[in-house]
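seq as requested:
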Amino acid sequence: MELETAERRDLSMILVRVLVSLVFLLEGSLKFFRPEEMGAGRFEALGLPYPHYLAPFVGGVEITGGVAILLNFYAGDAALALLVVIATALITTKFPILLGRPLGPFPLEKLREYGWFSFFHQARTDLCMVFGLLAIVIDSGLRVGRKRRWYQTGPN
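struct tokens:
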């Protein structure tokens, strides 16, 4: 009976890893395949510095982190790096929606309404990624620099 519970927990973390990694692999790839819409052009519109260097860097971090999480190879480290990326995305694109005004240099997206409901609606994928990444960090045992195989989810 105990083995069945452990297998079920392992399967659920594998599914979380697959979902989180696929989202970051896709978003990182789009920064290269659609640079004006999702990469340097978007970074420039957001007022981020050096968008032509920063966008490919962030895309590379997202792709590398997605692969690492998918393979559970330094997944905790990759999840921490991606938490920085997703926190930056929330601050630059979603917090202005919550506030209903630009946040420093970060512009306000044109929407019909602003506030909590609009924020949660616009940030739903980002928030799911935050909680998925936190689950991966917790599952990694909060050990930075620890390598594990894709099929291992328990402590080393």
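Helices lie at 2-33, 35-38, 40-45, 51-71, 75-99, 116-122, 124-139.
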